[in-house]
Amino acid sequence: MISKVLIANRGEIALRVLRACKELGIATVAVHSTADADAMHVRLADESVCIGPPPSRESYLNIHQIVAACEITGADAVHPGYGFLSENAKFAEILDAHGITFIGPTAEHIRLMGDKITAKQTAQELGIPVVPGSDGEVKPENALEVARKIGFPVLIKATAGGGGRGMKVARSAADLDEAVATARSEAAAAFGNDAVYMEKYLGHPRHIEIQIVGDGFGNAIHLGERDCSLQRRHQKVWEEANSPALNVEQRMKIGQVCADAMKKMKYRGAGTIEFLYEDGEFYFIEMNTRLQVEHPITEAITGIDLVHEQIRVASGAGLSVTQEEIEFSGHAIECRINAEDPRTFVPSPGTITHFHAPGGLGVRVDSGAYQGYKIPPYYDSLIGKLIVHGRTRVECMMRLRRVLDEFVIDGIKTTLPLFQELISNQDIANGDYDIHWLENYLAKTKA
Ligand code: MV4
The whole model's pTM is what? Predict the structure, then answer.
């Protein structure tokens, strides 16, 4: 049993986790830096502990401080949220050693998926379709032979990478040596590991990811997909479930492949299996062993609280639903509201002078922001998420238009005006976009 959860995070996700704990009758402990003393997650938690100065390294990423906060408050479990320590295998091990439950996968599974070559090999062994590419690491001296076998264009990726860092395209043999050398030196600088691997470069894919949850005993479910193709510099901007590109047969087929793979590895916790989707085919790229920012759209269409499930499986209680019991209903869209200029995406910290969140049927706002709240400059610029649900995609889009008109955030710049544009765009209305659409649109419509 878990009776007191320490939430090792801040902002909207700390609130999100806190809400789930309260619903389950579990006591909550917030931790915060000195910059976050006035944050909503601190105010709403049963107890709070200040764990250090503003820089994340000295507070939200400081494992010793977080373990100490558990000891002081008697927390028997930690939820890491997303980011920060959520995919840190060492953190999971240290909590284990202290008899504190990590609400997440095993350290072993985190590590396995953190290395992109072992993740891909594991996925392939478990029957998940992967991008054609090198068999493991590629050394500079073998690069040309491997590339010719795969066929140009190819993509060089860092094995310690993820999220797009350390990637280089080689269009032809003439580009190859430089692409490999640059990828290796960037990987060494960013991750302290210069190992790279190679894949066939897909030119116009969508980013479609499957939500799974496993109980750690060989049972696992999938909760369908999310289409996260609308991104800028590897930052997701707009996500939707279902994907406008898939039909129910495709959804249930790829979902079952993923659930079966998770059963075989006895995965515990929530996870996301990321695919590129092009010309009707799925290609595994990575697996994230955490709760994701965009999980609420999956909750909207399934009615399942993913944090409840995470807590259940972490305590050994098993999943609350079987695959057969899951019903997919309607369509949901999430807009990430960042404190940023809506065209340049330059951060815009400062004080929110007016704040009014929209409401009504099918509307969810996950945010720690309030009128008078001062956004600190030290952390990511996500200040809230707007999640809209409708019975159909058209209803969802019409509702989103209404809701965007209602949302008031004054005093800082936000990405809300960008969504006002997107909601009126014909390609978006048609669901006709790939991973490059948003950057092309921004370049095309530059003032
Ligand atoms: C790719 C690709 C094309 N072909 N792999 C970028 C982030 C990382 N998770 C994987 N990424 C990509 N891998 C092959 N073989 C294109 C991307 C990519 C991308 C993927 C998802 C969402 C947005 C993207 C933007 C640029 C490139």
Answer: 0.98
